[in-house]
Amino acid sequence: MLILELLAAAMLGLVLLWLAFDRDQTGDPALDPATDSFEDTAEGRALLAIKDLEFDRETGKIADPDYHALREKLTEEAAAVLAIQERAAAIPAGEAPSAPQSARAATCSRCRPRPEPDATFCSACGAAV
Question: Where are the domains of the chain?
Fold first, then answer.
């Protein structure tokens, strides 16, 4: 009886090993290193940086004043990345992109530079930019 249990356990182990190693052969794009992953895009890196910052705050690794300063900076960077993607999506195929309008950054006297380059009012406090 003990021999049957050992054989059954060995067979189960072999099946589990086969399933674990066979997953790489399925052609799943998430497992294929040749495909771009979300972390490799500018948008993905910006959002993952914010997520990591949130985790550091929740685990007590970062103080609240530092958190707020970094959160504002990372949010501005993420907004800039999304604005670039929106401008690129708005350009019809075959046209060359014009010079970026972000050379003139909107600046609030109270809240510092804003992520919206064409803003006339600050999105945080409402003051004229």
Answer: 37-90+104-129
- For 90, 113, 117, 118, 121, the CA distances from 101, given in Å and listed in that order, are 14, 15, 7, 8, 17
Tokens describing residue 128 = 């004229």
CA 32, distance to chain mean position in Å, is 19
Q: Is the pLDDT of residue 36 over 70?
A: no
Q: For tokens 């990345």, name the residue.
A: 81
Q: What's CA 77's distance to the chain center, in Å?
A: 11
Query: For residues 44 and 78, what is the distance between their CA atoms, to the nearest angstrom?
Result: 9
Using pLDDT thresholds of 50, 70 and 90, give the confidence band for residue 17. confident
Structure tokens at 118: 């064409």
Phi-psi region of 28 (alpha: psi -120 to 50; beta: other; left: phi over 0): beta
| Mean pLDDT, the chain, whole residue set | 76
Identity at 30, one-letter amino acid code: A
pTM over 0.85: no
